Amino acid sequence: MNINDYLWSSYDAYLGEKNRFTSMVDTEFILEMFGNKDERKKSFKKFMETENEDNCLDNNQPKLSDEELKKELAPSS
Q1: In this structure, what DSSP letter does residue 3 have?
Q2: For the chain, how many structural domains are there in total?
Q3: Would you say 3 and 19 are in contact if contact means Cβ atoms under 8 Å apart?
Q4: From residue 47, how far is each of 6, 23, 33, 74, 75 by CA, in Å?
Q5: Tens of pLDDT along 31-45?
Q6: Of 3, 16, 62, 77, which sits 20 to 30 A from 55 (CA to CA)?
Q7: What are the tens digits of pLDDT across the range 9-35?
Q8: Is residue 64 included in any domain, yes or no?
């Protein structure tokens, strides 16, 4: 999936493109980490497009129902 396909992404704002969310994003703090002013957006884009093996958002734990959670949290007798 392309990062531009995410509805709530601020990616466009970091590249200087205008959309309805651009005014809500302060990009300078992050872009300053990507070198001099002339290269920042290009370096940021390259960084964002670089593949990695991050899986920090994966959650493979089973989900509990409300009742199961209540039993799990109830004091044992």
Answers
A1: G
A2: 1
A3: no
A4: 17, 23, 11, 47, 48
A5: 999 999 999 999 999
A6: 16
A7: 889 899 988 877 788 899 999 999 999
A8: no
